[in-house]
Design goal:
Layout: H1 2-19, E1 22-27, H2 29-35, H3 47-54, E2 64-68, H4 70-77, E3 78-80, H5 88-102, H6 105-115, E4 119-125, E5 145-147, H7 148-152, E6 157-159, E7 170-175, H8 180-194, E8 201-205, H9 223-233, H10 244-268, E9 272-277, E10 282-284, E11 288-291, H11 294-299, E12 305-308, H12 314-317, H13 341-356, E13 359-362, E14 370-371, E15 379-380, H14 383-394, E16 401-405, H15 406-410
Parallel strand pairs: 1-2, 1-16, 2-4, 4-8, 8-9, 9-12, 12-13, 13-16
Antiparallel strand pairs: 3-5, 6-7, 10-11, 14-15
Helix pairs in contact: 3-6, 8-10
Length: 416
Amino acid sequence: MRFFVRAVVLFCLASADLSAKEKIMTLSWGDVIWQHRGQGIAQIDTPEKIRESIKTWKAKGVDKVHFRVDDFRILLFHQFYLPPTSSEYNKEAFKTTKQAWHDNFVRVAVESLKKEGIVVDMYLTILDEGLPREMLWDGGGFFPWQSNFTRENPQFLSVDRSLPGSPRKYHYGVLEYAYPEVREYMLKMVTTFSDRFDFDGVFLSLRTHSPPPEHADQFGFNEPVVKEYERRYGRNILLQSFDLEKWRDLRGEYLTAFLKDVKAHVSRKGQKLAIGIPQGEYLGPPFGNMKLHWRQWVSEKIVDELVVGHITQERSRYPNRNQRAYGYIQNQEENLNLPPIEQAVADTYAPLCRKHGVKLYVDPERFYYRFDHPAFGFARQPAEVRERLIQRLEAVRDLTGLTYDYSDILGLNRTE
């Protein structure tokens, strides 16, 4: 009898452990204020509304919020284009963001979350500097913003393999981290918000609005990369054939160098560092085949938390295309050369994260998409597919938690 009781207790403890997954709310504020306009406090476009709305989040099981500050970064450090033909979204977003910053919105949000016992990390994109005003957005309109840094220093954008002296193509919005100036600039972007407000940590996003390349190894031939590759391997990648994998790996080293800079800074303030990545070993669409050294980040505790599955969703950004870029080694959106995510988490990500004390999360909304056309149109994830995936992921013992969109956690309908 005693053995039976003991077995029941152990089973209950194990079951409780499996179900007690943390729930992270991904709060992309600039999208929310438009998607939920006219929905009362759910729109959270004023300090008063977000203060009231936050009071309900704990009851929804929210343990942590990734609070996106990119709209405020655009306000402070970008040129925002608002010609008469601008969409109502762009006009309203700029006006609302400007007023929110004036009203100290971010401070109110952070303080309110802490008051409710919810952890809050600053969410910032680091490969999303915008486009020149003459470039058309996928639907045919002009893209509304570009960072002053890349307007004044286009040489720091990732470039193609065209020879020096000939016209070179830029991957607009995508910085090349081989430059110390780029790492210094982006560290300033991070600390502008992480130092000013009482965030618990920093969440770095590798998502972007940038147009996809023509092929997956088109960009990344900037001067520091060319020189370092030649120093190591004795070949000029602009003039000679070379080992693509060594080049992809080298480019990834510079992103790692930047993460080390961020970690050193936030650690001094007692903050944690988290990063969102696609599944697999490469950055993938809409960037290219740059290597992601996520194993090093985990094993050296460069990051404290890892969110797997955090992708751009290229087909949502650029649906009006009849042909997609080729040459990607792995592609989460199209499930190319990747094992099932639940298997990868259990067999690869979770054991390494457990070994080195790194928290592991997954974004379950970005897997197993369906398409109505091989290239054209949006990707969609059927609700029943997501539900099954969540159940399977929750059964992985060493998975810390899952991330969910603001609207989904609160059960809200988007107006757009």
